[in-house]
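Design a sequence for this backbone.
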């Protein structure tokens, strides 16, 4: 059973967002993935969140929309099947998602399909490990497909399903994209608009953000990690007046240093609490050695975290209508936000996550083409 939750995608845990994404707590639900058995080579504990190009500040004001030209040939898209599965009330943010517990076997490929898949792998168009995941998840219902695909992806990345990884939540507010924190990956799905390839791309994108956090934490430790996470939080408090008033009851210029310090400490305490998964990974995987390739990669991510910037640092709840009004009233502000969005897209965290998401999305589309 998946229950409605109160979730704020602008909270400090979830900086990796689609800009302009707002949330209504009734439109986001928990997703309890179907049972998944990790392979024996993944250690279990002793005790037992696209390219983010779907949002544009443009003359056409294309906000949170993508074309659906890649719709599956079989008729209903993934999200249309999900719409029938969860019922209309859930699509408008009511009711709950019922997760099937039945064990469904994947649909075997025909001899022709298997040969075509083998050719795609041998030509390098589909990675071998992804081909196995696609093949083993073929034909499953949306709940089985999503839960088991997530488990397989986590195995592929060296994470223990149900222990190391963030839980999945589903939002029906937008058709594509998502957001993530240490503990949660939120996927956007809408009936008739979301394909399995898009879901898979978003899932892998957000898992890459989790991996980035893991590397930074294991290379530089908890203090450095938290300091890096705090920098964008402080920037938002300083530069987003509406947010600052919501958080403190005052404009930033009215805050005393003691009040700012108290705000920092509160968020630091929350971050420390949220780092339990990262501490567990550090204990299990060990500290990353200085000078190694992983250390150098983590160093790039650490710097990117400190300099992370998105539209929520400056504006709350941007919509097509508010941008249109802003363009007429203050075109320089719109130009400034366009520059912010470009820096967001060019940040190393997003560049790397987008690369991984796009890669698996395109590979899955190729896989679908042979079905």
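Sequence:
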């Amino acid at each position: 059973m998946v229950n409605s939750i109160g979730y704020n995608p602008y909270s400090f845990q979830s900086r990796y967002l689609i800009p302009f994404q707002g949330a209504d707590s009734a439109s986001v639900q928990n997703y309890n993935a179907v049972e998944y058995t990790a392979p024996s080579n993944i250690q279990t504990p002793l005790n037992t969140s696209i390219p983010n190009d779907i949002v544009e500040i443009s003359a056409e004001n294309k906000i949170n929309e993508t074309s659906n030209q890649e719709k599956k040939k079989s008729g209903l898209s993934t999200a249309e099947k999900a719409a029938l599965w969860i019922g209309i009330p859930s699509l408008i943010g009511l009711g709950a998602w019922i997760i099937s517990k039945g064990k469904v076997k994947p649909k075997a490929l025909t001899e022709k399909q298997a040969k075509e898949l083998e050719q795609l792998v041998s030509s390098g168009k589909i990675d071998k490990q992804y081909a196995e995941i696609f093949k083993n998840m073929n034909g499953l219902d949306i709940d089985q497909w999503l839960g088991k695909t997530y488990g397989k992806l986590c195995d592929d990345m060296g994470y223990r399903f149900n222990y190391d990884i963030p839980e999945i939540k589903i939002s029906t507010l937008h058709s594509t994209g998502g957001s993530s924190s240490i503990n949660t990956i939120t996927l956007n799905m809408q009936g008739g608009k979301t394909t399995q390839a898009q879901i898979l791309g978003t899932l892998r994108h957000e898992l890459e953000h989790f991996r980035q956090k893991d590397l930074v934490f294991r290379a530089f430790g908890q203090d450095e990690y938290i300091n890096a996470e705090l920098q964008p939080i402080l920037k938002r408090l300083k530069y987003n007046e509406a947010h600052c008033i919501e958080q403190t009851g005052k404009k930033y210029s009215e805050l005393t240093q003691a009040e700012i310090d108290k705000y920092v400490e509160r968020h630091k305490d929350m971050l420390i609490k949220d780092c339990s998964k990262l501490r567990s990974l550090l204990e299990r995987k060990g500290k990353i050695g200085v000078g190694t390739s992983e250390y150098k990669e983590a160093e790039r991510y650490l710097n990117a975290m400190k300099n992370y910037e998105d539209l929520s640092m400056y504006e709350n709840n941007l919509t097509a209508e508010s941008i249109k009004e802003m363009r007429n009233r203050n075109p320089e502000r719109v130009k400034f936000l366009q520059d912010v969005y470009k820096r967001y897209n060019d940040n190393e965290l997003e560049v790397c996550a987008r690369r991984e998401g796009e890669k698996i999305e395109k590979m899955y589309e190729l896989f679908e083409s042979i079905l």
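The longest helix spans residues 196-239.
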